[in-house]
């Protein structure tokens, strides 16, 4: 995949129809029925039933993901009319070369080389790539596999995990994340290796591809967390600071205060409350207490520290206050929780 292939017979036919029918604006979002003549004239020249199955407006996992696999790679056919569709799996759109436009509901998302867009399931969208040099890889992932690979990385980061879960599952806005990776060679290499592995009948193929996906997510966050474009929540100028705010809260949850955040990031406390609640679905206090309670429950099970020592370690100045909040979360005292889970 170091060179970009010539147009396939299907793509040549699609391009020919596009150039002969410029007045139809096939590169713009449309209903499938309006372009079905183009799709049938182009995609059926190979007599491949699997290809024609993909022309539906609601694509399920079985269409593209093999029964013995969790992930599939599909190269987007250049010059395919940008018809609306949705699918019941997660999709990563990776622009390896060129440009494309991802249309989601009423919004257009321009993407360039190196951009990575993670789409939640059941989101109606269309993809437009109408240049010979456009090389777009769609990575299709079962929901269960995505949750294990993606959210598994954030298991101990309650604040960040809540933010991303809200992004994909709970927001009424557009559930996607867009990373500008600037054509990162590390990410490109991982995708190329996983793509190649998918096409080979080797032992442990499924496990290898899943492992490469986990490595992809690790490097995506490690190297490009600060390059995420948030379009699912209304944060305006706070976009560029959101991850830093959440990361700071996560790293300093034992002692951080809203006033400290306000001084550090130069927002009013009221602005910060709005930003944090919009991003995570919880207030500042709720986020901090969630993280403290998670750590407290782990220490009660996996350490021999006394309740008093745990209270102090996670940042409570009052033992009584710790016991009160813990009971609110778990409907039992810390001591009862320890006895019930050992």
From TrEMBL:
<keyword id="KW-0805">Transcription regulation</keyword>
<dbReference type="Pfam" id="PF12833">
    <property type="entry name" value="HTH_18"/>
</dbReference>
<keyword id="KW-0804">Transcription</keyword>
<feature type="domain" description="HTH araC/xylS-type">
    <location>
        <begin position="243"/>
        <end position="340"/>
    </location>
</feature>
<dbReference type="InterPro" id="IPR003313">
    <property type="entry name" value="AraC-bd"/>
</dbReference>
<dbReference type="Pfam" id="PF02311">
    <property type="entry name" value="AraC_binding"/>
</dbReference>
<dbReference type="InterPro" id="IPR020449">
    <property type="entry name" value="Tscrpt_reg_AraC-type_HTH"/>
</dbReference>
<dbReference type="GO" id="GO:0003700">
    <property type="term" value="F:DNA-binding transcription factor activity"/>
</dbReference>
<dbReference type="InterPro" id="IPR018060">
    <property type="entry name" value="HTH_AraC"/>
</dbReference>
<dbReference type="GO" id="GO:0043565">
    <property type="term" value="F:sequence-specific DNA binding"/>
</dbReference>
<dbReference type="InterPro" id="IPR014710">
    <property type="entry name" value="RmlC-like_jellyroll"/>
</dbReference>
<dbReference type="InterPro" id="IPR037923">
    <property type="entry name" value="HTH-like"/>
</dbReference>
<dbReference type="InterPro" id="IPR009057">
    <property type="entry name" value="Homeodomain-like_sf"/>
</dbReference>
<keyword id="KW-0238">DNA-binding</keyword>
<protein>
    <submittedName>
        <fullName>Transcriptional regulator containing an amidase domain and an AraC-type DNA-binding HTH domain</fullName>
    </submittedName>
</protein>
